[in-house]
Amino acid sequence: MSVSYSPDSSESMPRLPDVSIRQTIIRSPSFMRADLRGDLARLIEYRDLLYTLSAHRVKVRYKQTALGIAWAILQPVAIMLLFTFIFSFIVRMPSEGLPYAVFAYTALLPWTYFSTALSNGANGLVSNSQLITKVYFPREILPFTYVIAALFDFAIASSVLVALMIFYKVSLTANALYAIPIILILTLFVCAATLLLAALQVRVRDIGIAMPLLLQVWMLATPVAYPLSVVPDRLRPFYLLNPMVGIIENFRRVILYAKPPEISSLAMAGLIAAVLFVASYIYFKRVEATMADII
Question: Following DSSP, what letter does each residue of 128-172 receive, concatenated?
Fold first, then answer.
């Protein structure tokens, strides 16, 4: 005996549930479409991926190394010892009444954070080309993970600054709390510079080759090994166009000298960082669509 179903049968075939497939369309680059709100909302949506990749970045950096996390401390300490030897015993560099070791290390701490994040983050897209060509996610996550990893190193290396201040009997005051907004401005600036250079590095590989030279010149143009007071007054307005000047000088000011930040230089650094971040993020999102094809 055979059983057949007709369209008018009281028993109907089970209906399959409606399945909606989410599609992500990466549009061609255009400077005319500035949907920053949507791009930032998408970045927040992928915050778990940002956290996972950042934690992985920290673990991989020190995996199978003899010194492990001590490498986060070794780099600024080694440079501090070299600067102290050169500028205390060979060439006398003014340190404004403070022991030169703590004077230099206080500036090397934020500078090392900046240089490490920038040098690694600028190559972040190129070094993860296989990931970019296989799966979609907001590409800015990759440069940001290097910034977060460098910020982790900054926190670890800060323990040496605390030890130096105790050793040289430099006391902290409530003005040291200004270091928090100063580091936030520094983070905003390094995110902006990393986004810009990472996007350019996809198309112009000379960026990665020129990065060590760029950072060396940049450090010499920043009051890391010397105080801002040695810069001639006639050159200081141009000198302050470097955001790292206001950031490092004010970080040193609130930590070592127990003074509030110098508002004009810090405001200049914050303004440049904010404008550069918006411009860099817009440029990054406009060229994001073609990264997988070029890289």
Answer: THHHHTTS-S-TTHHHHHHHHHHHHHHHHHHHHHHHHHHHTT---
Query: What is the average per-residue pLDDT within 174-200?
Result: 96
The length of the chain is: 295
Query: For the chain, what percentages of helix, strand and coil (3-state, to nearest 5) are there?
Result: 70, 0, 30
Closest CA to 200 of 284, 256, 139: 284
pLDDT of residue 245: 96
SS3 letters across 194-240: HHHHHHHHHHCCHHHHHHHHHHHHHHHCCCCCCCHHHCCCCCHHHHC
SS3 (DSSP) at 13: coil
Residue with tokens 């004010």: 250
Please compute, for residue 262, the number of CA atoms within 13 A of its CA located in the half-sphere on the CB side.
Answer: 16
Question: In this structure, how many other beta carbons lie within 10 angstroms of the beta carbon of residue 18?
Answer: 5
Q: Is the dihedral of CA 217, 223, 229, 230 positive or negative?
A: negative
Task: Round the CA-based radius of gyration of the chain to a whole number and report it.
Answer: 25
For the chain, domain boundaries: 36-294
Residue 238 CB partners (closer than 8 Å, separation 6+) = none
Task: Give the Å distances, CA to CA, from 212 to 115, 217, 218.
Answer: 9, 9, 10
At 183, list the tokens.
């580091």
pLDDT at 23 (0 to 100): 56
- Average pLDDT of the segment spanning 33-52: 81
Q: What is the pTM of this model?
A: 0.85
Cβ-proximal residues to 283 (8 Å cutoff; 6+ apart), any chain: 31, 195, 196, 199
CB 195 within 8 A of CB 140: yes
Burial class (CB in 10 A: 0-12, 13-18, 19+), 106: buried
The two tokens of residue 15 are 């209906």
